[in-house]
Design brief:
Length: 91
């Protein structure tokens, strides 16, 4: 299965990209793949920063908030769009 990850605000900064495509069967697998790519490309610090941002972010799957569901238990349909939305400041 392939999914598109879209990174917003601080997640975009930590990822160094606005979006990317990953192959994954679950939400957890997709997010882990994004972190692994940063470790391979820029060292462990980049992966750790993206992991930190992801852990405090809201996640939408095809426009629906995932909430507090265990990410490993959320299956990804082929072609899914996953949006990572860090907390925003301001009003």
């Amino acid at each position: 299965m392939t999914a598109t990850l879209r990174f917003w605000a601080a997640a975009r900064e930590a990822a160094g990209a606005a979006e990317e495509t990953v192959g994954a069967g679950t939400l957890a697998d997709a997010l882990d793949e994004a972190v692994r790519r940063r470790v391979g490309d820029a060292g462990a610090g980049a992966g750790a920063e993206l992991r930190r941002v992801i852990e405090r972010s809201s996640v939408l799957l095809d426009g629906v908030r995932v909430g507090r569901a265990e990410r490993a238990s959320v299956p990804l349909p082929d072609g899914a769009v996953v949006e990572i939305l860090p907390p925003f400041a301001g009003g």
